[in-house]
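Memo to structure team: turn this sequence into structure tokens by end of day. - J.P.
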Amino acid sequence: MADRDRRNRRGSGDEWDRRGSRAPENSRNSRYDDERREPGSGRNNRYDDERRGSRKPKKKGSAVGTFFSTLLLVAAIGVFCYAGWRLLGYYLDYKAGSDEYSNLNQQYVSMDSGEEGGQAETQDVREEERSAEYVPEENGETGRPGKILKRVEDLEDPKTVEKKIEEAATVETEENQEKKQLPVMRNPIDFEELNKINPEVIGWIRIGALGKSYPVAQAKDNDFYLHRTFEKQDNFAGCIFLNCDNSKYFTDQNSIIYGHNMKDGSMFGTLKNFGDQELYDKNPYFWVFTPKLIFQYQIFSCSIVNRVGDPYRTRFLSTEFDAFLKTCMENSQIDSHGLKPEATDRIVTLSTCTGNESTRFIAQGVLKQIYLSR
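Reply from structure team:
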């Protein structure tokens, strides 16, 4: 009996281990679990290895892609910074040019007599303004006693201009090799001081309808003032300047004055607005002040023209000039209400760019009146 029990115990290896101890009931599962946990052993471990081996390795191109993405980002930042720097430069140039011409207007221009601007006035001038009378004989001149014209605005109004000129004192003066009786007008520009700043100053232009008021210079060529201000500072706004081939006395058949078409509207940036009939009807005049004479022009034509051609000629034969004036009238964008220049007249062409390299916008005025500066 005892022998049989021992044989039974020996035969049940799943219940007893070799030392005679009872094996755990879940020993088979435990061994299976151990096999799963031990690296490199068991079916599941082989499966895990296969799964790890099946993971896709990193592509070599991904590093290259990251490099180029970073490079593009750096390039974009560089372009942005460069654009910002250029915009800042443009702004500073605009401001520098604007500040210069604003200061010149404040210091050396006094358009309305009776209000002292920057222009230094002598005691004699102030006394003449108070009396508002000028007697040519008292100054050794020949002419008619009368008032000294003072307000430019009064001479831009068609309703008052003729009366004002009739009331003005006149002085016999030689102009363009002719003796003329010219009305006397107070010169609102201090050319003596402007000449100290730039000896190449030859005049000052005023365009009332556009609110323009700038010095006019003239160099030996038409390039110098393209990107230099009146004070000869480098600036893409440049300076308003007279064609180098023209007489600084405005005696040519066609005197040409250039100015940039600035995006902020400065210089001749709004000259194209004269193509608006309503603006033209409001005030069709512009002025050129010089040290001794003052010229008043009335616009008769506005048009877009080729950058080369007759509008940029300064002298013509009589028949050529007459044909040229007719062409200007025919191509004009405005109605000048019957104003028709003749071959014996003198004109000024104001010219600016259009954004098209091959064309220009021009506004042309015929000389209506000359005043003697006092």
